[in-house]
Model the fold of this input.
Amino acid sequence: MSGPQINAGEIADWPILKIDYLTDQDKVAALLPPGIEPGAEPHVQLAIYQVAVPNVPEYGVFMTVDADYRGTEGVYTLGYGIDQESAIFISRDMNGQPKYPCDIDFYRFQDAVSARCTHQGYTFIEFEGEAGEVLPQRENHVEYEWWIKVLRAVGGAEKAYDFPPHVVQVKSTYATKAEVAVEGTVALLDSPWDPIASLLPVRDYQGARLWWPEFLGREITLEGALDPEAYWPFVDTISGSRWPGFMGGPKPA
Done:
């Protein structure tokens, strides 16, 4: 078995399953509100995890696409599906973090790695693989993530806000304890609640890995405003995510 070993039953120091693929550039551009630009490549990142938040297990998946804001390279987050209800609403209200309820199965048995993400009865991501070679040690690095904080006006008046859309910058600094390649396959499945299969289809699968991060720092700051009128088509989303929706749910068929 490769990677760090932990005490039986320990919830700290689990690895994050990172899955990477390329999709269509126009698909990425369609999901980004005006003011946030597509990155150099239509790169999609899936991360499936179990972390202690604050001291109890939180299983989750987060889905991002490469995106730039004011010339800074980063990722735009479409959703954090998590199984810990207590963290969902405060995160969205305080920071604009797009969290919503999701059921996650994620485990490793010896070198077999398995993950499944389900929301409203629909499984939308499945992964099966085998842990393989230890990857070369990577240097400490900084990641930028973009969220949107916005509040529509009470009563739902057209194009009216109590707090207009602003970008929230999340600057995270990481070291890497270990990283292990995973040979496997990812399946994106049709779901009206998490339409990743239709809105970000896999065009070039780039692999998966188990990553043991060390969190060195995180800064969450309110950045610039987005054009409120141009943002209006993006205001309706599914649940707490940034998937395009209709009154909090999937768009009618």
